[in-house]
Specification:
mainly beta, 14-stranded antiparallel beta sheet, two-stranded antiparallel ribbon, 16 strands
Length: 272
């Protein structure tokens, strides 16, 4: 019904000391609550410290609800001496409902303003502009009218401030057919999985160039296809990205997403 955990790490040059304390309580199966306290001492007399509290309730008719609040300060990159601690004030509320064939989860999150780091591996995107407080709406859903056929996906969109570094609105939908053909192969020796996916994001700003000018991120829609086959100890799969051959959009300038890129593999186990 209750737990308490503490840890102390003495390790890297950039974060030589890290102290964590975690506790939780669950007096009934209908309610849980917990809290985390984290203190980190970084190189250059910098510190990160925050407290996170969370609670969840299980309601009648398949409903559940939870909330999380994290408050404090954090250093995004302790290995960079010029990176100072920033205020952290993140809150989220989540509600979900599940039945035998349908599940849906919706969350509303509010994140404090942040100064993210640029992409060091991409010289054309040396910086990301600071953002103000951003409120996010995220929805996840799963529909399984048949045991062998499932449709699932998620959708996320910011309300108000749209931070740089990621698409403002992002979504993904999967349609999966997965069957072991038990009426024919009752031993479960056979398995087939077919999946099609659609990913979409809206235009935004991915980062800033050396002059501080925002670099546009174009909107795009991409299709993906997956085929998997299992016969006993033999498994093979084929996964193709960007099935439609879209070439006009990218995440990083001058690095287009390849058309018809694919991966495949075979695994065969032999046991005595």
């Amino acid at each position: 019904a209750a737990s308490l955990e503490g840890s102390l790490f003495l390790r890297s040059t950039w974060t030589p000391v890290e102290l964590r304390v975690r506790g939780g309580i669950s007096p009934t199966r209908f309610f849980t609550a917990g809290a985390d306290v984290d203190h980190q001492r970084h190189d250059g007399e910098r510190t990160s410290q925050w407290i996170a509290a969370r609670a969840g309730v299980r309601l009648p008719f398949g409903f559940v609800a939870s909330a999380v609040w994290r408050k404090g300060t954090a250093v995004a990159a302790p290995s960079i001496r010029s990176d100072e601690a920033q205020d952290v004030d993140d809150r989220s509320v989540t509600g979900a409902w599940a039945s035998s064939f349908f599940e849906v989860e919706a969350s509303y999150s509010s994140n404090a303003g942040f100064r993210p780091l640029g992409y060091d591996q991409y010289p054309l995107l040396p910086a990301i502009g600071p953002s103000g407080r951003t409120n996010w709406v995220t929805v996840n859903a799963r529909l399984a009218l048949r045991q062998w056929f499932v449709i699932d996906g998620w959708y996320s969109s910011p309300q108000g401030t749209r931070p740089e570094g990621q698409p403002p609105t992002h979504s993904l939908i999967n349609a999966t057919l997965q069957s072991r053909f038990l009426p024919t192969y009752r031993s479960g020796i056979f398995g087939l999985k077919l999946q099609g996916s659609i990913e979409n994001w809206s235009p935004g700003a991915i980062a800033r160039d050396g002059a501080g000018v925002p670099v546009d991120l174009k909107g795009g829609t991409y299709w993906r296809m997956f085929i998997g086959l299992q016969i006993g100890a033999f498994t093979a799969y084929y996964d193709r990205y960007n099935v439609a051959g879209t070439r006009r959009t990218w995440y990083v300038p001058n690095l287009p997403i390849p058309a018809y890129a694919s991966t495949f593999g075979v695994r065969w186990e032999f046991r005595n």
